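In the previous chapter we treated chains in isolation. Here, by contrast, the input contains two separate entities that must be folded as one system, with a combined length of 228 residues.
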Amino acid sequence: AQSVTQLGSHVSVSEGALVLLRCNYSSSVPPYLFWYVQYPNQGLQLLLKYTTGATLVKGINGFEAEFKKSETSFHLTKPSAHMSDAAEYFCAVSENTDKLIFGTGTRLQVFP
Amino acid sequence: DAGVIQSPRHEVTEMGQEVTLRCKPISGHNSLFWYRQTMMRGLELLIYFNNNVPIDDSGMPEDRFSAKMPNASFSTLKIQPSEPRDSAVYFCASSPTGQSPLSPLHFGNGTRLTVT
């Protein structure tokens, strides 16, 4: 069965610092992988996705993620954090069905 | 495009009462999903519909929960009777093409349910 593990329920960084949010997945077939972001009192929005092809995926707001099959990872990064990046981030996996399985989320705090 | 519309935004009810959550998906979207979000369990898929037909309800916690989609523009999630452990934020989401994980989910703003 497919699953997602997000290491660290809370991550704190200073404005301008590197953001690294970790995601490992389990899947019996080549997966589709996603990162969603949730701002307070809102639903989730798609940040980026990996389907096939290039393993480095660029998303909105300067975020990117790299699919590493050997490590079963899909970590999310951003070179320089901005105050507006403070939100909760969810990694998700899909095995070619309509169903997305989400991780438990990582709350990102950005300090000035 | 108004996005996915959920109502009410907040619901406070007493244990044992019936609760109905409502969702209007984006027009033209074929798939509709109900998720529950809690601190302990994160975001859980409860049920999803494709072309108004329930495809997978394996995430529905128990018989107290039921969901319907009478037409392409409306869905309900009902809890009867409600219990304090049902307190959570319930999200509805829709996607444009039913059989592809490549279609992003569009989420509503959620209904925050509190059962006392």
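Chain A touches chain B at residues 32, 34, 36, 41-46, 49, 51, 90, 94-105 (CB under 8 Å). The first strand of chain A starts at residue 3 and ends at 5. Compare these points with the single-chain example from earlier in the chapter.
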